[in-house]
Amino acid sequence: MDTLGGAEFAPETTYLNTSTCGLLPMAAVAAMTALLGELVAGRPGGAGDQEMVTAARQSFARLAGVPQERVAAGGSVSVHVGLIAASLPPGAEVLFPEGEFASVVTPFTVRDDLRLRYAPLERLAEAVGPETAVVAFSLVQSVDGRIADLSAVRSAAAAHGARTLVDASQSAGWLPLTAGDWDYTVTGGFKYLLCPRGVSFLTVTEEAQESLVPGHAGAYAAEDPWARIYGPIKELARSARRFDEPPAYLAYHGAERSLALVEEIGVDAIHAHATALARRFREGVTALGHTPVPGESAIVAVPGLGSRVADLAGRGVLVAGRAGGLRASFHLYNSTADVDRALEVLAG
């Protein structure tokens, strides 16, 4: 099976580690290099183009299936989650899956006046109760690639009037995302969206915007960002842009190109490609006598094989070690040859 990325990527290893960090497309590197050259030479307009931030926002909005007015641009998932955590009243109950990624959990735990509960991922929906204010979870779990029962969680939250916070960092780019199904989504762009670090998106429903305080609002959060850059902003943006962080322009110049490539290839095509490779790998490690975490995810975890990560790296196969297991993740630039090479090394 050929790659989908064509000449846009040039890995020098068998790279099966997108869940840690995605490879940058050549077009993104070229855009960032061009901006670097301008910054060295002296750029009349400052550090970068706001148009690139707008284009990236629009591209992500199309990928997420929401209007661009619902999308805030920032630099990290934890900052987005921090806004949501700060907006909750004292005593509010927040429900997480056990073993959820720290960036989703910690912004809530640093407050000492919230009630936090945890439940196994497979029983998350039934753990939602009448006192639950927010259910916060990743669509795809970082540690092992398991996919939450999205329909069940959404229905349970709606039945109890709880808001939903979804982290799509391990899924957006290979798993179709319908951000409108959730009150909030947060997505780090440096994994399956192939963006540089420093690119992250928050989506917010119109209703949820009303209770979310833009605690880091600055000049970029204004309805007219250049109307008043000294003193307090008189009118914040009427869209989710009020929750924007000041952009890391270098990263967003690359992100505009990366997101355009994901759009051009299409998430459905990437999903079919990546999950087929993951299925081949899952079947291969099973044939070798190991027991991978089951599922139809583009991320495959093999418990107990974490000790092989260094050996694989030494032979040019890059995977991750998580919670004692081996984690391999597949994306558009991977091929069946990559899968077979990893299995060959594992077979010894």
Quickly describe the structure.
With 348 residues, this protein is of the alpha/beta class. Helix content is 36%, strand content 15%.
Structure commentary:
A hairpin with a 2-residue loop joins β11 (320-322) and β12 (325-329). It contains 11 helices and 12 strands. The model has no long low-confidence stretch (mean pLDDT 96). It has 2 domains: 6-25 and 266-347, Aspartate Aminotransferase, domain 1; 32-264, Type I PLP-dependent aspartate aminotransferase-like (Major domain) (Aspartate Aminotransferase, domain 2), CATH 3.40.640.10. It is of the alpha/beta class. The chain starts with 13 loop residues before the first strand and ends with a helix.
Describe the structure using short key phrases.
alpha/beta; seven-stranded mixed β-sheet; Aspartate Aminotransferase, domain 2; Aspartate Aminotransferase, domain 1; 348 residues; three-stranded antiparallel β-sheet
According to DSSP, the number of beta strands is 12
Distance between the termini: 24 Å
Topology pattern, helix = H, strand = E: EHHEHEHEHEHEEEHHHEHEEEH
- CATH homologous superfamily annotation of the largest domain: Type I PLP-dependent aspartate aminotransferase-like (Major domain)
Number of helices: 11
Largest sheet: 7 strands, mixed
Number of structurally distinct domains: 2
Topology of helices and strands:
Blueprint: E1 14-15, H1 26-41, H2 50-64, E2 71-74, H3 77-87, E3 93-97, H4 102-109, E4 115-119, H5 124-127, E5 132-138, H6 150-160, E6 163-167, E7 184-188, E8 200-204, H7 206-209, H8 249-265, H9 267-287, E9 299-302, H10 309-314, E10 317-318, E11 320-322, E12 325-329, H11 336-347
Parallel strand pairs: 1-10, 3-4, 3-5, 5-6, 6-7
Antiparallel strand pairs: 2-8, 7-8, 9-12, 11-12
Helix pairs in contact: 1-8, 2-8, 3-4, 9-11
